[in-house]
Amino acid sequence: MLRGRQVRRMRPTGIYNPTSTVAGNQHWGHATSRDLYHWENQQIAIFPSGPTEYIYSGSAVVDVNNTSGFFPNQTNGVVAIYTLAIYTTQAGEQTQEIAYSRDGGYTFTKYAGNPVISINSTQFRDPKVIWHAETQKWVMVVAYAAEFVIGIYTSPNLREWTHASNFSHHGLLGLQYECPNMVQMPMEGSDTPMYLLWISINPGAPLGGSITQYFPGTFNGTHFEAVDQVARIGDFGKDNYAAQFFYGIPGTEPQVSIAWASNWQYCQLVPTGPQEGWRSSMSLPRYNYLTNVSRIGYDLVSAPYNITGQASRELAFNSSLGNSSILLDYSTVASGALYFEANVTHLTAATLAGSVNVTFTSSQSGESVRAGTYVGGDTFLNRQYTRGFDNPFFTDKFSATGVFNETTGVWSLSGVIDRSIVEIFVNGGEQSATATFFPTAPLDIMALSATGISPNATVSVAVWALNSAWAGNENVNGTVVGNVTTGSATGNYSAAAVRRGALLFEGRMAGL
Amino acid sequence: MLRGRQVRRMRPTGIYNPTSTVAGNQHWGHATSRDLYHWENQQIAIFPSGPTEYIYSGSAVVDVNNTSGFFPNQTNGVVAIYTLAIYTTQAGEQTQEIAYSRDGGYTFTKYAGNPVISINSTQFRDPKVIWHAETQKWVMVVAYAAEFVIGIYTSPNLREWTHASNFSHHGLLGLQYECPNMVQMPMEGSDTPMYLLWISINPGAPLGGSITQYFPGTFNGTHFEAVDQVARIGDFGKDNYAAQFFYGIPGTEPQVSIAWASNWQYCQLVPTGPQEGWRSSMSLPRYNYLTNVSRIGYDLVSAPYNITGQASRELAFNSSLGNSSILLDYSTVASGALYFEANVTHLTAATLAGSVNVTFTSSQSGESVRAGTYVGGDTFLNRQYTRGFDNPFFTDKFSATGVFNETTGVWSLSGVIDRSIVEIFVNGGEQSATATFFPTAPLDIMALSATGISPNATVSVAVWALNSAWAGNENVNGTVVGNVTTGSATGNYSAAAVRRGALLFEGRMAGL
After folding, report:
1. Glycosyl hydrolase family 32 C-terminal domain: which residues (chains A, B) (predicted)?
2. Protein fold of A310-466
3. For the whole model, what pTM was predicted?
4. Domain limits of chain A?
5. Interface pTM (ipTM) of the complex?
6. Quick one: CA torsion of B489, B494, B500, B502, rounded to 10 degrees?
7. Which member of A385, B182, B334, B415 has the lowest number of beta carbons within 10 Å of its beta carbon?
């Protein structure tokens, strides 16, 4: 696997409703982190200018060369690019606006010349901007959502944008394209990064609701060309939408993304809500790079970002489990979060057999969440045996099929379970799945077993307790207070409590 | 909607294992029907020539002009085109062979010059042949399964084939392409049919396992060109695979297809089995045509073929249900099969609200199967509340999203439930879903309700009992005996009992 650099500081801002636990009243929330797991809330970054305005998804860049002119004598000027959506009695225009920060991203001033792109559309949103060094231009991808078109615009200065090309009607359509990202992406085995176009769709995904798909390809400064006509899906669970890639990581290094871990089919209904002061969460931060999977070809690897750095203690380890199992009570793990790995090694094409299964059970209620992988074949994730939420769209079972790599001789399943969310990874992230779940009592017992594995193969397993991502920020009541603000154009906001580490935002997040 | 002609007689042959209820020992079974619901078993059509041979999927044509030379003085000569797969200690070569029938399709003679296409591949199968009048050539599509390529071959005589082009890496890949079909397909609102390329994938579908996708496009006799790079999925359930289109229906009329109603992830494990003498079933026969759905664009409509012709009596009817419900006990319906329709009419974009829900419940066990549609939005199918089969890949909930058509002002849900399979249709087949289910006791109570519908809209509902498709063929024990044969190259076969109308074949079916 490629290894990424240590990211010094990440600064996400994202769609945030400071007055409720459902979508609406959208602001840009803001938090900072040095490790992508522990986050410090900051003041709300961008406010709507009035009650008919919503601040929608977008992105941010560092304008090192002061192309915008906003930053004389500065190399750390930050420009945020976002969609301003108007809602009166009905949906109004969506335009692209910018705001700049001269204090390193803490406070933003809206550009007086806004909007920077206006095309008289009610379905035009979610700009993602990168710097294209070869042409010395900024490049924006933005969704003409209802037309299944991703527009590509270029700009010398972030203020004046020229339409360059469209990428349209590729892959799964659903009912709209949203939250496009275009980023340079390293290709394993090559020194030359490719480009990746990333398109979220909602509703109408194959599993129902929202999903994200991607297209490896090339980009010449104005036109993106996909390598083929294939629809590749980013996550085989149902709770991984609109991931955003952080800005500023060199294209030769693994990129980093964070997704919103829910689905529009039920995100407003799941049981966390008014009492907790939070509802949705974000996915784990992920390393991403392209690889060539045996026979299947292009595949975007998505693996937890430096998760071992968050381990607090080892709960179980066995370098030669054989066809056996481990059982552990993790009720004393304060964070409630575990990371596990099960690696089957020394495999050959002739010894592909058996499966590895993990089950997380509640000792109080008997509810469980289960995952398993058949060596060289299907992997499943099953949230059927939790009873805290019943909804016809809350699909219970997810699965994907991988391909064994004879060169490595390895088949592996790893994952993180964190109270009400589980993320699993096959073969280091060749496939990944994200699912929320809602038991009526906490899960606190883990069983991991291997069955039917060839005696010529080796099964090594380990389970670690993870640090709490938010304990350092909690108040005496155990609550982490959200993006408190002392004032805004539209009045005072009550604090919305948040929980779970990186997962500060109700909605989607724009990387900085 | 387009209306299809009455089909006089259909003659499917399909992959069939006469000695077991699991895949293996593949022959071509054979049955005939005048209505696509009542079927008469015929002798096995094509046998393997020895124990290392399997007869795999393919298709058949009527060689009216005796292009093959097999049929002097005949206009009803039938040629079957199939894959011969060799299995010894491991998978051997797959080649394309032909066999001809001079008695109207009852008995077949293998061509002495077989194979007609051989490329030294173990992953090369499922030929589907049509006649291309403009070039006066036969055209075959066939899968290079592991390479994600559909090969297009042409032939003047069905014996000599020339490779013309490849269609590759489009849509969802999964792990292999299988069972391609290319057919002329009428386009609603146009006098000129389009072509449709239909590709099944397995495993690795978004829902897990197997699924079918399609590509509208043009075909010039050698090259197929898709209208765009979109992956369109044929069915939003999990039990509709490898549908085959019947041969010989003019391209200006709706085409007819039948799918295999299971999923490779669990088809060998579902509870029907040795005791019943059958396991899988086929889908309802379907009318198919292309239409242009509001905003989404190209959509393949799939609706039950002449289902009202199979109604035996009306169980419920209400032309103005309002926000109310009907409840009926259908335990006295001998077939166990119902067709229902719920049409919400006189809708406008401003009155899209509410939902229509149907539930089929077992009075003995309380188990149920449920479906519902939110007017103008999501439709779901839920088999979660049946308990006869528990498997991590037996996904329980399926959903899709439709688009309201202001021109018609209609939103509708219809469907057929038949003991252990349910097929639902939104807006006359703009979306469709197929799901098998396995209750521990028969479902026998139906509830249909409308809630939250605008008072300005009208809800009309009807439920019909359906004729039994197989009662006419059953013996004194209530069993329908399968494809009995009096001898074969590999010995005698025990009869494999079959059930459920059109659903004669364990595996996939090739249309004739």
Report:
1. 377-464
2. Jelly Rolls (2.60.120)
3. 0.92
4. 310-466
5. 0.91
6. 10
7. B334
